[in-house]
Fold this sequence. Notes:
By secondary structure, this protein is mainly β. It is built from three helices and 38 strands. It has a single domain (5-325, 385-532), classed as 7 Propeller (Methylamine Dehydrogenase, Chain H), CATH 2.130.10.
Amino acid sequence: MKNSIWIICFAFLISACHQEATTVAQHQANTQPKSMVVVKSSFLQLAGTYRTGKFDESAAEVVTHIPDSSLIVFTSASENALVFLDISNPEKPEMVRKVTFEKIPDAAGINSVAAYGGILAAAVENKHKQAPGFVVFLDTEGEILKYMQVGALPDMVTFSPDGRYILVANEGEPDHSYQNDPVGSVSLIEWKGTIAELSEENISTLTFGDVALEGPVRISGPNADQLTDLEPEYIAVSADSKFAFITLQENNAIAKIDLENKKVIFIKSLGFSDHSQKGFAFDASKKDGGVHIKNWPVKGMRMPDVIVAFDVDGKTYLITANEGDGREYGDYEDEIKVKKIKLDAVQFPNAKWLQKEENIGGLVISSVDGDTDKDGDFDVLYSFGARSFSIWDADLNLVYDSGQIFEQVIEEVVGKRYFNTSNDKNKSENRSPKKGPEPEGVTIGKVGEKQFAFILLERIGGIMVFDITNPSEAQFYDYQNNRDFEADPKSAEAGDLGPETAVFIPKEKSPAGEALLVVANEVSGTVSIYYVGMN
């Protein structure tokens, strides 16, 4: 495949530098990113790809593996269906069946799927998006066993590791007029017997309106209040099944839930990536004549989508993919370019220079944050996302942040010609003024004695691999991108575009006898399978 990136890896020169930690809202990771050299790797090897033939129709979004089987299942929003694939031969995945939900009254788009034992759970929204949605239970043959009503816009569903709980993140997005803004919530379904025995008595609905906010949690919608503005996005559960952690993406925060007591313990801000600091530079312009990863007086709101939990020596850690997400509903939009605002003369004495397109004039920032003294000009610039991933402890203390590593790797591998391209066009730097490579999904897996994180880049594409065996000293390991930048993005030759989610299948549970990574790609409508192994 011409100009495709298949087997490329980076190692780091040993040059760690540390930065004093203060609060979550203020500090960066205590391990700064390291510089890199290029080496060869065979850690990720593409095995095969299943193509739906649908471009930019969300035909492959969320993927899961049915335990003790050769089946994976992914969501197809374009068909409102679950698609079952047999990957017993990863090089030739075959579709087994599709399951649709038209028999469920008012069921519309499918947003998520998870598996535990012989049961699948799917999160399905109502055709009236602000009305209560559904969690649908199926067996591995695709037969619908039961469906239950949950909160508005169920966006993600997962099982606790012990199988006792099914958790659903009900995002509760407003309508386009912003007049109907449902409450964001988490549905906690306790499962003690069979699916058939589940009833409304098994469901607890947790909301966030009466929980104290710690740090600068973003409440920003028009006429917003805490109850309706907090919007659950994704859920991770600790290995002991005692705690759940929920990303509140637009709010730049995480909520922690005590599952046994069905209580929200805290809601904490994720703070900001300070792009003026060493190791946290970024490329801010598509009109600066090339790739220029530089420091700027900007703070990146991490705003993660996907979160995963993992244990090291009995201690829980969390990984967030710091994507960023603004709000745009009808006439309401909370994004604006730096060149269109008034900058505080004291905080930005070089305002005229900064607002040039070749600097940060075209950078998209929040239009509702930053006027700290309420005098009509901007004292702080807050951009969407941090172009990184972070590792946290269970109390939400920052342990590690990858800082500028993603963009450094992309510059080294892809070069100027296709740096920070989008997932539907091959135009250099067209994502630089927005959210850069836009880390979207993350999953983890153990290979040998090492624990790895696989972070998906939604825009330029590809998988960043980090060794997270020691969470505070995470090390960049590999980058793979099954994309041909010279091919028409709508063609099969383009490869994988818009990776959304992934699932790691360890060697001992793999139908192929080898560890696998399965990636669902939203824009190309493809599901690709990689062999995973040590060098």
